[in-house]
Every structure is written in C-alpha cells, then in structure tokens.
Design goal:
About 5% of the residues have low confidence. Helix 6 links the parallel strand 3 and strand 4. The strands form three sheets. The protein has a six-stranded parallel sheet with strand order 3-4-2-1-5-6, sandwiched between helices. A six-stranded parallel sheet has the order 9-8-7-13-14-15, with helices on both faces. The longest helix has 21 residues. Helix 8 packs across helix 9 and helix 17 packs parallel to helix 18. It has 21 helices and 15 strands. It has 465 residues and is of the alpha/beta class. 40% of the residues lie in helices and 14% in strands. Bound molecules: 3-phosphoglyceric acid and magnesium ion. The site of 3-phosphoglyceric acid has 8 residues, from loops.
C-alpha cells in the first residue's frame, strides 16, 4: 500500500498550521512516574522535529495502557459503559494512566522546543490551549482511552478530535491494527492526512519481510502465545528458509511431534494447526533438542523474586547483577541429567513429569546461534524470547540469540526484531538497538501486518473524506 508521507506535502503547507499527530506513547511508567523503555517516544522524534522545524503547531495524541479494564466492571453496574468520559474516571486511575510523565520525558529529549501537557484530549479547554500555541510549540493531550469513544471509534468523539487541527499525521504503526477513533474515525475526517516518518520506516522494513524477504531468510520465533502468531507464521512459513522455534510455544510443537514435554504448557486449542505446519514444513522447522527445566514451584519462587528485584531496581537505579547459569544448573554429566536434585537442570530430549521447560538448552543454543550468525547477506527476523528471560537463570538462550543477531548484523545480514519483549531481551543481553537493522515498535500490530491483515490506520490515510 503506498501512503503519502510528510515530504509529499510542500514545506509551506505546515507553516503556522495545527498538525494532529497520533503517536504511540504506550510505555511502561513506574510507581514513581519514571519511564521504563522509551524507544517508542524516541522513534517519534524525527517526525516531531520535521514538523516543528517547518513552523507547525504540533498536537500529539496517544493512549496509555488499558484504563477501561479496571473501570469497566464499575461502569457496567452503573450502566454507563457506552458513555464514560474523562470526568467519570476515578482520580486514581487518571493518575495511574496519565501521559503527564511522558510529556516530561519528551521535553527532556526535545530541548529546543516548548513541550506542554493538558489534562484532557477534547473540548473547550483543549481548544483554548491550542489557540495560545506559537509555531514550533508541542502540546501533548491526555490519554485518549479516558473516553470510551476512542475504542468504540465513536463518530462524535472522532469529530471532536478532528476539530483540533488542520492536518493529520499517523506516526503510530504499533496501534494501526486498531480501528479506534484517533487511528481511523478522526483520520477519515481530514482532507490532509499523511504517514509520519516512523510509520513509513516500519512499513518499509516490514513490507520487505512480508512481501520480498532477502534469502537466506531465517525466522526466529519464541514467546508463549501461539494464537497471536499463527497468522504471521502461516504467511511467512512458505517463504522462510529456516524457522527456529523457542520459548513456551516450542513445547506445543515438540508435543505435537510426539516428544514428552512434562509439565510444560501445551496449547491444545492450536494443536492441530501446529501438527499441520510440522507435516508441511518439517524440513525447515527447527525445534529445541535440549532444555533448561525446573519445577513450577521453583519458577514461581523466582518470578516472585524477580518482581521484587524490579521494584528495587526502580528505586535504586541500574541492575548490574550478573548471573552464572553454568554454576546454577546441575552439573552437565549424563548421570546428573536424570537426577533432579537441583531445582534447575539441563535436559536432553523428553522432559519428565513434574518439570517444565523454561529456556532452550545449551546444544540448542549452539545450533540456533550458528544458523543465525552464519547467515551472510540474508535476513533474520526475531520475534519473542527463547525462555523466561525476566529471570537471569533462564535467560541464557535469549541472550545468545540476541548476541548472534548482532554478529549477523555486523556480517551484513538484515536483522529485524519485533515485539516489546524482544527489545527488552536485547537490552538485557547488552546488545544495542543500533546493532539491529530495524527494531519494530509494534507487538500485536507487527504480527497482524506480517499476517497480511488489513490495517485500519493505514486504510484511513488513503480514504477520501
Ligand atoms: C501496544 O502496546 O501493543 C500498542 O500500544 C497497542 O496497545 P493495545 O494492545 O492496548 O491496543
Ligand atoms: Mg498490544
């Protein structure tokens, strides 16, 4: 799909004009209002600077989280579910899901221009604030999802948003799979509507993956949910040369292949799909040959500890602690593999009952890493971690994939990673985002796009008013 982008309009078109930019500032914000990974914010800077330099008045809008989830129950009782607006939202929820900390972070990143924030996203106060704006000013609106109309793609809410500006820009690839007012309904109401630079970049790389991948094309897929990945896998499997599977989803594949997977989670809803994929593409699909295994109770214990550590880390600054996998797992002698005295062990082949796989094993790491790092001048797409990477003990597989991806990048392959989890996995492995050809801002949107589904956000840009 070809889209008009910023440079398709003459520079003077922006001078003194109000430009409404849909961004995705859905980032993690800690209890102390500290922003976690700010990649999504940084990726919008080229568009913001392009427009401010040309004298536009920039109105940025975004959602943050899913505030309705907490609210919905309450409003159901009050039968207000279709109507709620910002004044119906509890003050606690408004604080928790406010974009105010993002405005602060943005003003630190963009020091030359004036960034301000307003605690609403439609209505007279917003209009008044916009009327005061000078050329080059930036105003961030409050969380769009404080209005039910956003997710319902409500016409009146869309009209309110559209009344704020002269030109519309979509720079939020990662929400473009949602048919929401700020992405679709309002977009349609503009004469001038274009794609931002971040959206354009995402489309360039992801279209290449979807439509004309460079060969050899290696797809590395992990994480837990098969359901979310079936569309993308179905579309890409005929085109890939090698598919490396890790993460919790690998156990469903292994189980469908007749391997014992112990207490590892199996997705029976998609079992038949997995069986079909295995029989059609058997020669390209690689599954783990060994696993780091543990008991559910030890995994729960470690998950609890890692949550406490995360909290401490937020209070104290950076986490520099290192882990030592080899000293933590049971000794790697054949006899020890059958005795499970250590809570963590390396297991080749079948996983016994009472244990579940939490990371790919050492032999699998070697095999996957060698396929990735030997991919010269081809393409590698990586979506989803190889194990429970939040816990240091179960991060070895993911860390090694990240490092091999960096090696392949330096040797000339195109490397593309998607999914929020994968970016944080990369950072944990101390691989810079600059050692990757492209890091997608999207999770669900990337998978939907790669599956070839319609993207309402892009469709709306091409619609005549
Ligand atoms: C994301 O984080 O995937 C996007 O911001 C979209 O958020 P959503 O899944 O809540 O619509
Ligand atoms: Mg999502």
């Amino acid at each position: 799909m070809s889209l008009k982008t910023l440079s398709n309009l003459d520079d003077l078109t922006y001078y003194g004009k109000k430009v409404l930019v849909r961004v995705d500032f859905n980032v993690t914000i800690g209890k102390d209002n500290e922003i976690g990974e700010d990649y999504r914010i940084r990726m919008t800077i080229p568009t913001i600077e392009y427009l401010t330099k040309r004298g536009a008045k920039l109105i940025l809008m975004s959602h943050l989280g899913r505030p309705k989830n907490t609210e919905e129950k309450k409003y159901k009782e009050e039968d207000k579910i279709q109507q709620y607006s910002i004044s119906d939202i509890d003050i606690d929820i408004r604080k928790q899901f406010s974009l105010a900390p993002v405005a602060k972070r943005l003003s630190e990143l963009i020091q030359v221009y004036n960034v301000s924030f307003i605690e609403d996203c439609i209505g007279s106060l917003v209009h008044k604030e916009i009327a005061k704006m000078e050329r080059g000013d930036i105003l961030l609106l409050e969380n769009l999802r404080f209005y039910k109309g956003e997710e319902l793609n409500d016409y009146n809410f869309s009209k309110e948003l559209a009344s704020l500006a002269d030109i519309y820009v979509n720079d939020a690839f990662s929400v473009s799979h949602r048919k929401h007012a700020s992405i679709y309904g309002a977009t349609r109401l503009f004469d001038k509507k274009i794609a931002g630079l971040n959206l354009k970049k995402e489309l360039e790389y992801l279209s290449m993956v979807k439509d004309c991948p460079v060969h050899p094309f290696v797809l590395v897929i992990g994480g837990s949910k098969i359901k979310d990945k079936i569309g993308a896998l179905g579309n890409l499997l005929p085109k890939v040369d090698e598919l490396l599977i890790g993460g919790a989803m690998a156990y469903t594949f292994l189980n469908a292949n007749g391997v014992k997977t112990g207490d590892s989670p199996i997705d029976y809803d998609h079992f038949q799909w997995v069986k079909n994929a295995l029989s059609t593409y058997n020669d390209k699909i690689y599954l783990p040959v060994d696993h780091i295994v543990t008991s559910q109770s030890f995994l729960d214990l470690k998950k609890g500890e890692s949550q406490i550590k995360d909290k401490d880390k937020r209070n104290q600054g950076n986490d520099n602690s290192k882990f030592d996998l080899l000293s933590a797992i049971a000794p790697l002698s054949p006899s020890s593999l059958s005795s499970h005295s250590s809570p963590v062990s390396l297991n080749k082949g079948a996983i016994p009952d009472g244990l579940l796989g939490v990371d790919i094993g050492i032999e699998t790491v070697q095999q996957y890493s060698s396929i990735i790092s030997q991919n010269r001048n081809g393409m590698i797409v990586w979506i989803g971690p190889m194990g429970v990477f939040e816990i240091g003990l179960f991060r070895n597989g993911t860390n090694n994939i990240a490092k091999s991806m960096a090696l392949a990048f330096w040797r000339g392959s195109k490397t593309i990673i998607g999914g929020g989890d994968t970016l944080s996995a990369l950072k944990k492995a101390e691989v810079s985002e600059l050692e990757v050809t492209h890091v997608s801002t999207g999770g669900g949107a990337t998978l939907k796009f790669l599956a070839g589904y319609e993207m309402p956000g892009m469709e709306a840009l091409n619609m005549v008013k």
